[in-house]
Amino acid sequence: MKISNKEFDRIVKETIGRIPEEIRRYLDNILITVKKKPTPEMLDEAGLSPDETLLGLYRGVPLDERSIINPPLHPDTIFIFKKPVEEMCSNLEELENEIEITVVHEIAHFVGFSEERLSELGYS
User: Fold this and answer.
1) Neighbour count for residue 99 (Cβ, 10 Å)
2) How many CA atoms lie within 13 Å of 27's alpha carbon, on the beta-carbon side?
3) How far apart are CA 58 and CA 79, in angstroms?
4) pLDDT at 61
5) Taking the domain 5-60+73-113, which CATH number applies?
6) Which of 22, 79, 109, 120 could serve as 58's disulfide partner, Cβ 3.0–4.6 Å?
């Protein structure tokens, strides 16, 4: 599946609106950006080899690691990687679902949700 950058951005925005408020509220101070694909450094940061797939990446300081003494120096960012998401989806519904799951999993890294909690919320 391949769509324009503008259409992909629109779908990302709409899909974020579908995320339950309990989770979506954490996005208030997180930048969400779309990149064509992850850089080699991003794959390394995620612990993946160059031939592995990365759909999204959270970069920042998780809430449970923050302190008043040492505040984060950069904004928290969630990257969504367009090309890998498109490659794994064959239709618009799959694309929307994969974007939603990816964003929620990256929010989980920021908030510190366990895999168990994500399963309870329907994002296993």
Assistant:
1) 26
2) 21
3) 6
4) 81
5) 3.30.2010.20
6) 109
Instruction: Annotate 30-99 with DSSP letters as a single string.
Output: EEEEEESS--HHHHHHTT--TTS---EEEES--GGG--SSS--SS-EEEEEEHHHHHHH-SSHHHHHHHH
Measured between alpha carbons, how far is 115 from 50 in angstroms, rounded to an integer? 25
Record the pTM. Answer: 0.88
Is the distance from CB of 66 to CB of 111 less than 8 angstroms? no
Q: Can you give the residue ranges of every domain in the chain?
A: 5-60+73-113
* Interval 34-88: pLDDT, tens: 999 999 999 999 999 999 999 999 998 887 777 777 766 778 999 999 999 999 9
Quick one: tokens of 57? 């990446």
Structure tokens at 36: 């064509």
The predicted pLDDT at position 119 comes to: 85
